Amino acid sequence: MSLAPRLDIRQSQSLVMTPQLQQAIKLLALSNLEIEGFIAEEVERNPLLEASAAEDNDAPDREPVAEVRDERVAADELVAGTGAGDEPTLDVDYATESHQQDSVADGGSGMDGALSMTGASAGGAGGEDGPDLDAFADTSLSLADHLLAQAGPAIAHDDAFVAAHLIDQIDEAGYLTVSLLDIANRLGVPLVRVEAVLATIQTFDPTGVGARDLSECLALQAREADRYDPCMARLIDNLDLLARGELTRLKRMCDVDDEDMADMIRELRSYDPKPGCRYGGEPSQSVTPDLFVARTKAGWAIEINATTLPRVLVNRSYYTELSGGQQDKASKAWLSDCLASANWLVKALDQRQRTIIKVATEIVKQQEAFFLKGVAHLRPLTLRQVADAIEMHESTVSRVTSNKYVSCARGLYELKYFFTSAIQSADGGEAVSAQAVKSAIKALIDTEGAKILSDDTLVDLLNAKGFDIARRTVAKYREALGVGSSVQRRRARTLGGAG
């Protein structure tokens, strides 16, 4: 075997994704609102691109691409691939590609009978915009600004920097998260000085702000309400006993009777454990649907929400004007790149809408019982089932269903919601969805009455309803619903009776 260096020629094949294809696939995972931001960036970068509202139809020399068409495209045509023209698909299958598998259930048969899907279009529903929810957003100052405004006249000038540092360490809930000794060492001031400034801050609005734990927060509010007597102090110092429902021990420690203990607990419940949450913070963002699903006489109407998806236009007149003038080689190449990029974006957005409609159509077809009868009739469904039905890769379906919400008569749901694992039926019948089991568990707990249902009892009741489920699965689903154990629920009911 020769150890001398040599040159060899080898021929191999590899699949390389072009930047445009990578961008087209990335567009699938974006919601309509994210697409709107992406389009705005492209319009700013490319002079041949323009974006207009969906209702703007006065563009004679431009090519609308990602807009709602006037005629409705039948979903059967989209699934068959005959209604989308000859544009290349965005579905890409790579052996090395990883994607999110939403369910471990690979079984389940399709729905019996054909489902008529008419009215599936690449456009959004018309109509006027709803109420402006942003008008109800909290425009008040943040908690830090609110406290600093009060610190101005209340804190001595020499201690202003200490107060500012303390306020900066108060979190959104109103609690001081750093020890006073650390603050004193950091600022190089005596600890007693920091304690004095904190005592002044704890008199600010909202009452309870600047506390270092829950007990101190409640104590500050009790003092403000003139209810901080020795009995209330002992109760606040033993909140752990109150959480465990040891009322008999608390009554003995506080030296009160049942009536006084109930009154003290009612008083504690009237206090705010997170006083800082009333100020500042980011306003809650409403979820905007990307798709609309509605029942019609002929079947199901599936539409993309065009109100959040602007029309993308290619300004052909501007391109003709620029290309007709004198240009050097670099300018011609740049203009050609702009036109190619604009045409690609138009096709990519149009294909994105068609792919979303195709996936949504199959989901509605598989979950028709849910849209008609509710969550109890939600069927087990996996990405592979939908991918096989529409002849696409699972990763494509995963991207399409990410960050997408559908609005229907039953409410607003994420597309991922319709993919759930299967729970076998106790009588050997068709498997049911895990989401349906969660709904049954919540219904049983909501109506349990005076007798608290244990997990073992829930298993028996679910088996009677036809759900073959283990106790550990019931506990897992109960915790996922945010419902406490039978012991915790019984303790909460005891405290409720005391209050």
Describe, in plain words, how this protein is organized in 3D.
With 499 residues, the chain is an alpha+beta fold. The chain has helices at residues 19-28, 32-45, 75-80, 143-154, 160-168, 180-187, 191-201, 214-224, 230-237, 239-243, 247-254, 258-269, 316-324, 329-366, 368-373, 383-390, 394-401, 434-446, 455-464, 471-480, 486-498; strands at residues 49-52, 62-64, 291-295, 300-304, 311-315, 405-408, 411-414, 422-423, 432-433. The protein is extended, with a radius of gyration of 31 Å.
Brief descriptors of the model:
4-stranded mixed beta sheet; 7% strand; 3-stranded antiparallel beta sheet; 499 residues
From the N-terminal CA to the C-terminal CA, the straight-line distance is 90 Å
| C-alpha Rg (nearest Å) | 31 Å
What would the principal axes of the Cα set say about the shape? extended
Report the major sheet.
Answer: 4 strands, mixed
Fraction in beta strands: 5-15%
The computed structural class is alpha+beta
- Which runs of at least 5 residues are low in confidence (pLDDT < 50)? 55-88, 92-139
| Secondary structure: helix percent | 40-55%
Give the beta-strand count: 9
Spatial ordering of strands, largest sheet? 4-3-6-7
SS field, number of helical segments: 21
Q: Residue-averaged pLDDT, rounded?
A: 77
The arrangement of helices and strands along the chain is HHEEHHHHHHHHHHEEEHHHHHEEEEHHHH
Present the secondary structure layout.
Layout: H1 19-28, H2 32-45, E1 49-52, E2 62-64, H3 75-80, H4 143-154, H5 160-168, H6 180-187, H7 191-201, H8 214-224, H9 230-237, H10 239-243, H11 247-254, H12 258-269, E3 291-295, E4 300-304, E5 311-315, H13 316-324, H14 329-366, H15 368-373, H16 383-390, H17 394-401, E6 405-408, E7 411-414, E8 422-423, E9 432-433, H18 434-446, H19 455-464, H20 471-480, H21 486-498
Parallel strand pairs: 3-6
Antiparallel strand pairs: 1-5, 2-5, 3-4, 6-7, 8-9
Helix pairs in contact: 1-14, 4-5, 5-7, 6-7, 8-9, 14-16, 16-17, 19-20
